[in-house]
Amino acid sequence: MCSNLCRTPAYKRQRTVLVLFDFDLTLCDEDTYSVVIQMALLAGLTLPPHLQTPPEYEGWPEYMRGILEYFHVKKITADMIKERLQECPMTKGMQELLRYLHDHQEPSKFTAEEGDKNGVAPDTKTVYETVILSDANSCFIQWILEKHNLSHAFAKVLTNPSEVTADGRIKLGEFHEQTECKISPKNMCKGRVMEEWIAQKVKRTGSGYSAVYYVGDSMNDLCPAKRLGPTDIFFVRRGFSLHKKLAANDVLCKVELWSDGRDILKTLKALRHLKGENIQQ
Ligand SMILES: [Mg+2]
Ligand SMILES: [Zn+2]
């Protein structure tokens, strides 16, 4: 007799893990705003007094709008900025990790028959949804992803909107405006954006994620991590600012350190193995 399980399409019997990546100094091995600001120095320009000190935490969109406007006046074009950003390398091992996540993305390419053939019950498959959650902006991220042929690797890029206007200016917007969260800047509470994304998924499909893995490097990744639970994982870049400042009781979720994307890949495979999945797949 066939149970209900047999009649459920394979993709509905999978565990979907949401894998959220920060961008600057996580996926990309540079801080894109620092790279752009440094272009002024490389061009031999002295920034006007009000742009000489970048903000510490709050006020980045306003500051970057000032920088981009100054660049426009000084004929540092959007194309020149794009070209410079496209020289930024991806962090070591990230290409390999993203390829793996893409090969096991939701909906899975595996059918129930294949699952059975490999001796793995189809309801134990883990699939991933890969999303960027970044306080950079859409142009900078897309340009770098394009350069590394990674535009297809993400289900969504959640970031501040930006566009190149007809007169060659880069127009930079803000993701939202919030004042509820005190540990996030006004233009982006990453924790709230993450929760909204998860809520949309529940609305869309009727079920949420079985776990959330968040990969980051700096203190602006702490807000979403604080909202994770014991089955989730916060992947913290070893030796970077977040690792140095993170206290043991800051988060409820598991914390794993990483130096290379392959460290994360190893953990993902080990988890699948623990759950009895064939990690060769
Ligand atoms: Mg970062
Ligand atoms: Zn927040």
UniProtKB/TrEMBL annotation:
Task: Name the keywords, alphabetized.
Answer: Magnesium, Metal-binding
- Magnesium keyword on record: yes
Q: Which InterPro entries match?
A: HAD-like_sf, HAD_sf, Pase_PHOSPHO-typ
So where's the catalytic machinery, residue-wise? D22 (nucleophile), D24 (proton donor)
Q: Which residues bind Mg(2+)?
A: D22, D24, D217
Q: Which SUPFAM superfamilies match?
A: HAD-like
Keyword tRNA-binding attributed: no
Which Gene Ontology MF annotations are present? metal ion binding; phosphatase activity
Name the coenzymes or cofactors required: Mg(2+)
What name does the UniProt record give this protein?
Uncharacterized protein
